[in-house]
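User: I'm new to structure prediction. If I give you an amino acid sequence, what do you actually give back? Let's try with this one:
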Amino acid sequence: MNRRDALGILAGAGLTGLAGCLSGSTSGSVADGETTEMPEQSPDSSESGDLPLVVETIDAQGSSAGEIRVPVEGTPTVVDLFATWCAPCVAQMESLRSLHEEFGADVAFVSVTNERLGGGLTIDDIRGWWTENEGNWTLGHDPESRLMRAVRAGGLPYLVVFDAAGEITWTHRGLASEANLRDAIVDVR
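Assistant: Good question. You get back a string of structure tokens that encode the predicted 3D arrangement of the chain. For your 189 residues, that looks like this:
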């Protein structure tokens, strides 16, 4: 394989990843503010089993190493599924920071990446991305994508809002507006 072929393969893989990152809701749209309804799940609908799940957490700004139960028991929970290579995930951090400042005392915020370490990605790279994008709440790592499967995430970023009883009340695939995410949080407080 020559250099040109290798670059072509890498470019194709990058575009495929970007397309997954930018994919819209079930209708295929990436319109801001579009939400998706969660279909009823059968007991066998995901390999990981039912929620809640325990996710490993990373020692980073605003986060401690250990584990967290998702959704957080007895607390409304906002889950942000992201990847460090995803440009809309970076943009989503702005509204997450603002809403965490506004609601963080009453609502648990958890951001989770499913990126596998290796191939040039280290846990320090994830921490660096987190610090660079001013994350200041719980940071999780789920390389087996159990959480993504459990909530049926079909792209990144993917947001899920749970009420205090642990029921999913709102989901959004793609970049969500701060106003729509705020409304979803207010509905569960």
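You can read the tokens as a compact description of the fold. Here is one thing that stands out. The chain has five helices and seven strands.
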